[in-house]
C-alpha cells in the first residue's frame, strides 16, 4: 500500500472515532552513507523505512500510535490504539491541551534539486571521496584521512481531521573531509568544510560537488600537520575572541536555538538536555544580546538544512523573529506550546520518523549579517588590537539551563595589532550566555554570511535526531580562553 493510501485509511478510521483533533503522517524514508579512509571504501550503508504515525487529542490529552505494517487492518488498529491511549492519558492529565488557531493547509512541496542524492551511483560517490583523500594524503606528515557523504530523502503525506492535506518530499545531501596528524603523543585533526561529517544542505548531489572536497583536501592536510607542531592556546580569564562563521553557527545552536524552544521554557522538555533560563514573560523585555544582534527562525531559507514546505503539524513554513536588535521577541513553538502562551505556531514541530511524535525543533535559526556588506573575517581581524581567532567546532558543553558553556575548536590564531599571528592547538573558550551575546561588538556583512548545518541535533526521550541550519557571519565577542 502506498503511503498516500496509508494516510487515507488512517485519517478515515481515526475521524470515525470522533476525537477533538487528529492528524496522521505517512512517511517513506530513505538514506545512504558512503565512508572512505585513505585509499579504500570503509562503509556503504543504505536504509529505508515506511510507516504511519497517528496522533489524536481526546479529552484534552494526547494519544499516539504508529505502525510499520502496511496492511489496512493494522493501520486501523493503530488508530484505535491512539484513541485508547489518549483516553487513558486524559484520566491523569492536569491541564487540558489546547491547540492554536493555525489554519489547515493544503499543498505540495518538493525540495529544489538537480540530482537526487539517492539516485547517484555509489561508485561515483566513492570515487569523488577517494580523490579527496588522495589529495590530502599527498601532504607530508598527514597520518590518515577520512571522507564521507550522506543523502536523505523523505516523502510525507499529512492529513488532519480539520481538513489539512499535504504531500511533501524533502531531500538533504552533503559531505566532508577530515585530515589527521599523529605524533609525539598528540593527535590533531582539521576538517573541511566543517566538523561532524561536513556540510549539508537541502538539495541534491550538486550540493556535495559544490563543496569541492578534492580541491580543498591538500590545504586541510597542511593545517592538520601545522597543528601538531603548534603550542596549546594559553589561558586568559577574559579576552577578545573572533569566531569564524561555522563556529558562530554552533554557538547560535546551543545558546540561542535551544534556550528559545518554548517546550523547554514551559518545562515540558527537561529530561534529555534540560530546560532554559528564559521565561515566558521575558518576551519583549529581556536584552539577550547587544543591539547589533538579530536572530530569525526561517524554514524558507534557500538550500538550508532546516528548509521545508510544511512542518509535521501541517503548518506552512515561514519566518519568525526571535531576537530583534538584541531584545528577545519570540520563541520556537508548535501548536500546543503556542496556544499555552496565547501565540500562534511558527511551524517548528518536527519528528525524526513516522514512529515519533513531533517536538519543537529548530529549523534555520540564523544571525543577521552586519550592516557593512563588505566586512568579513579579514576586516574584523584588522580592527582587533588583541585577541584570538577560533575556527571550526570540535566539542561543546552547556549546562541544563543553557547558561554556562564551553566550546572546543580545532584551531586558533593569535590576533595582534590587527594581524593574524601564531597558530595554536586545542583551543577552548567559555562564558555565560547573556554576557557573551551582550558583548558582541562586530559582525561580518552579507558577503561574509553563510548557512551552516547541524545534522545531529538530539532532543527528547526517546531521543530524536533533527537536521537543522544556522546562518552566521564572522563575529567578535569577549570570553575566557584556554580552559581545558
Reconstruct the topology from this structure.
Layout: H1 3-16, E1 21-37, E2 40-58, E3 61-67, H2 72-90, E4 106-110, H3 122-137, E5 144-160, E6 165-183, E7 186-192, E8 199-202, H4 206-211, H5 213-229, E9 236-243, H6 245-257, H7 262-265, E10 295-298, E11 319-324, E12 327-328, H8 335-340, E13 349-350, E14 359-360, E15 365-367, H9 377-382, E16 386-398, E17 404-416, E18 419-424, E19 428-432, H10 433-438, E20 442-443, E21 450-459, E22 464-472, E23 475-481
Parallel strand pairs: 4-6, 9-16
Antiparallel strand pairs: 1-2, 1-5, 2-3, 5-6, 6-7, 6-8, 9-23, 10-11, 10-15, 11-12, 13-14, 16-17, 17-18, 17-19, 19-23, 20-23, 21-22
Helix pairs in contact: 1-2, 3-5
Written account of the structure:
This protein is of the alpha+beta class. The chain folds into two domains: 227 residues, PmbA/TldD superfamily (PmbA/TldD fold, 2-Layer Sandwich), CATH 3.30.2290; 246 residues, no CATH class. Helix content is 22%, strand content 39%. It has ten helices and 23 strands. Strands 1, 2, 3, 4, 5, 6, 7 and 8 form an eight-stranded mixed beta sheet that branches. A hairpin with a 2-residue loop joins strand 2 and strand 3. Helix 1 packs across helix 2 and helix 3 runs parallel beside helix 5. The mean pLDDT is 97.
Key terms for this structure?
PmbA/TldD fold, 8-stranded mixed β-sheet, 2 domains, alpha+beta, 39% strand, 484 residues, 5-stranded mixed beta barrel
For the record, give the distance between the C-alpha atoms at the N and C termini, rounded to a whole number: 55 Å
Total number of distinct structural domains: 2
Instruction: Name the beta content range.
Output: 35-45%
Sheet having the most strands: 8 strands, mixed
How does the overall form come out from the CA principal axes?
globular
Helical amount: 10-25%
Task: Please report the number of helical segments.
Answer: 10
Number of strands: 23
Average pLDDT: 97
* Poorly predicted segments: none
Alpha-beta content class: alpha+beta
Radius of gyration of CA atoms, rounded to a whole number: 23 Å
Family: Belongs to the peptidase U62 family.
Keywords: Hydrolase, Metalloprotease, Protease
Pfam families: PmbA_TldD_1st, PmbA_TldD_2nd, PmbA_TldD_3rd
Protein name: TldD/PmbA family protein
Amino acid at each position: 500500500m502506498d503511503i498516500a493510501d496509508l494516510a487515507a485509511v488512517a485519517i478515515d478510521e481515526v475521524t470515525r472515532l470522533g476525537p477533538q483533533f487528529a492528524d496522521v503522517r505517512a512517511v517513506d524514508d530513505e538514506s545512504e552513507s558512503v565512508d572512505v579512509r585513505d585509499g579504500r571504501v570503509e562503509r556503504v550503508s543504505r536504509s529505508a523505512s515506511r510507516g504511519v504515525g497517528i496522533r489524536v487529542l481526546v479529552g484534552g490529552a494526547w494519544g499516539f500510535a504508529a505502525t510499520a505494517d502496511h496492511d489496512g487492518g493494522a493501520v486501523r488498529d493503530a488508530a484505535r490504539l491512539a484513541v485508547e491511549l489518549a483516553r487513558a492519558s486524559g484520566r491523569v492529565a492536569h491541564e487540558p491541551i489546547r491547540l492554536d488557531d493555525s489554519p489547515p493547509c493544503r499543498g505540495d512541496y518538493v525540495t529544489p534539486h538537480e540530482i537526487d542524492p539517492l539516485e547517484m551511483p555509489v561508485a561515483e560517490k566513492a570515487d569523488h571521496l577517494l580523490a579527496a583523500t588522495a589529495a590530502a594524503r599527498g601532504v607530508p606528515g598527514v597520518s590518515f584521512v577520512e571522507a564521507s557523504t550522506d543523502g536523505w530523502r523523505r516523502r510525507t503525506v499529512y492529513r488532519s481531521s480539520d481538513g489539512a492535506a499535504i504531500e511533501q518530499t524533502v531531500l538533504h545531501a552533503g559531505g566532508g573531509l577530515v585530515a589527521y596528524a599523529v605524533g609525539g603523543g598528540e593527535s590533531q585533526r582539521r576538517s573541511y568544510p566543517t566538523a561532524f561529517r561536513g556540510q549539508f544542505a537541502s538539495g541534491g548531489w550538486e550540493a556535495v560537488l559544490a563543496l569541492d572536497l578534492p580541491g580543498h583536501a591538500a590545504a586541510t592536510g597542511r593545517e592538520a600537520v601545522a597543528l601538531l607542531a603548534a603550542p596549546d592556546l594559553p589561558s586568559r580569564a577574559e579576552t577578545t575572541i573572533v569566531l569564524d562563521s561555522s563556529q558562530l553557527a554552533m554557538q547560535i545552536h546551543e545558546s540561542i536555538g535551544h534556550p528559545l524552544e518554548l517546550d523547554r521554557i514551559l518545562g515540558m522538555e527537561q529530561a534529555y538536555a534540560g530546560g532554559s533560563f528564559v521565561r515566558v514573560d521575558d518576551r519583549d523585555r529581556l536584552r539577550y544580546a547587544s543591539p547589533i544582534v538579530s536572530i530569525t527562525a526561517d524554514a524558507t531559507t534557500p538550500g538550508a538544512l532546516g528548509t521545508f514546505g510544511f512542518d509535521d503539524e501541517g503548518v506552512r513554513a515561514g519566518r519568525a523573529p526571535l531576537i530583534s536588535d538584541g531584545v528577545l521577541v519570540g520563541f520556537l513553538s508548535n501548536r500546543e506550546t503556542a496556544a499555552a502562551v496565547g501565540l500562534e505556531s511558527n511551524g517548528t514541530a518536527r519528528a525524526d520518523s513516522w514512529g515519533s511524535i513531533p517536538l519543537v525543533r529548530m529549523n534555520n535559526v540564523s544571525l543577521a549579517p552586519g550592516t557593512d556588506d563588505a566586512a568579513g573575517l579579514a576586516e574584523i581581524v584588522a580592527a582587533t588590537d588583541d585577541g584570538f581567532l577560533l575556527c571550526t567546532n570540535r566539542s561543546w558543553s552547556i549546562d541544563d539551563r543553557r547558561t554556562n558553556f564551553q566550546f572546543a575548536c580545532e584551531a586558533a590564531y593569535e590576533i595582534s595589532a590587527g594581524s593574524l599571528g601564531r597558530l595554536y592547538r586545542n583551543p577552548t573558550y567559555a562564558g555565560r550566555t547573556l554576557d557573551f551575546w551582550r558583548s558582541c561588538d562586530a559582525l561580518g556583512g552579507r558577503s561574509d554570511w553563510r548557512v551552516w548545518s547541524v545534522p545531529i541535533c538530539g532532543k527528547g526521550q526517546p531521543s530524536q535526531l533533527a537536521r537543522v541550519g544556522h546562518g552566521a557571519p564572522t563575529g567578535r565577542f569577549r570570553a575566557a580562553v584556554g580552559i581545558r
